[in-house]
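Students often ask why we bother encoding 3D structure as a string. The short answer is that it lets us treat folding as translation between two languages. Here is a chain of 119 residues written in the first language.
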Amino acid sequence: MESTRQKKIARLLERDFGEIFQRLGKDHFPGAMLSVTKVRVTPDLGIARVYVSMFPVDNKKDMIDWVRANSASIRNDLAQRVRHQLRIVPELEFYIDDTLDYQENIDKLLRGEGENPIK
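And here it is in the second language, the structure alphabet:
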């Protein structure tokens, strides 16, 4: 169970990541929208797991690989934003949030358009 401190830090990071990814999306991924759906912080506040949703993107793996490759500069941008709230900026781990894809697949199945794996 997350502590109150973890939840507060996660909300702070989620807001700041949203602004960072909005700027990055315009510069590096025109036509794509990157949004942070969830941030989870470890109990020692040393690692932040960031779940990123990308829409409309054909190759999400390439995009998340680019984000992971540039995590040092993203962490630096984050540090500039939270320098007065946090003493130590957590290490960042980025993951693809595929809940939108999952939801879209469920909708297709319910409408009868998708392939039903259970036959």
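Translate back mentally: The CA atoms of residues 64 and 70 lie 10 Å apart. Keep this in mind for the problem set.
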